[in-house]
Design a protein that fits this description.
Elements: H1 5-9, H2 25-33, H3 46-57, E1 75-79, H4 89-93, E2 99-100, E3 108-109, E4 129-133, H5 141-210
Antiparallel strand pairs: 1-4, 2-3
């Protein structure tokens, strides 16, 4: 029996941390469904996640792949607001838009939306982002996974719209420049022709003077 990527994705924690080697939980689920990835590459899901995937897919339980990292308790990050310089690099790195702020303004983490993926930590130039273990993990894990997935998909949709709008603006700019150049060409041709006539007239005059 073929198990769908949807069913596999529903069991993943939706931290979107990329520790599995894929750009999010959904790509990892699709790779598992295609038989291209093993079920033991998700540190946030840990032992329980591997067991759930094994039961779904009828595969043997395996220990967590060591190249993916180690299992960690549920966590979030927090920003030392006294050190933050407002560079926005962490905002750009967050896969679920859980960091808010503006350029050269202090940033802060929306704790309830943070997945603890740690992707915001490496880009920070002043090391002001720190990890904190959650004292009380979410009671409804399924609802938490659904919310995380929705935020991840919404961010990807926004980035796709932004990229499409940028591409459209650049296309219009190129067309405007091409139109401007095309409009200039006739004038340049007229000027060039006039200069060529002057050059030829001077050349004839020079020949006449020499004779």
């Amino acid at each position: 029996m073929t198990i769908s990527a949807d069913a596999i994705d529903a069991l993943l924690p939706q931290t979107q941390c990329t520790k599995c080697g894929y750009q999010g939980c959904r790509p990892y689920a699709e790779a598992i469904a295609r038989g291209e990835a093993d079920i033991n590459r998700c540190p946030p899901g840990g032992k329980a996640g591997i067991e759930a995937l094994a039961a779904l897919l009828g595969r043997p339980v395996k220990p967590l792949a060591p190249d993916c990292g180690s299992e960690q308790p549920p966590q979030v990050v927090w920003i030392d607001e006294n050190v933050c310089i407002g560079c926005t690099r962490c905002i750009q790195a967050c896969p679920v838009d859980a960091i808010v702020g503006a350029t050269k303004r202090m940033h802060t983490v929306i704790e309830s939306e943070c997945t603890g993926c740690e992707l915001c930590i490496p880009p920070c130039p002043v090391d002001c982002i720190h990890i904190r273990e959650l004292e009380q993990p979410a009671a409804d894990e399924q609802a938490l996974r659904q919310r995380r997935r929705a935020r991840f998909e919404a961010r990807n949709a926004r980035l796709a719209r932004d990229a499409a709008e940028l591409a459209e603006r650049r296309r219009r700019k190129r067309e405007a420049l091409q139109a401007a150049k095309a409009a200039e060409d006739p004038r340049k041709l007229v000027i060039a022709a006039a200069l060529e006539r002057v050059r030829q007239r001077k050349a004839r005059q020079a020949r006449n003077n020499d004779s």
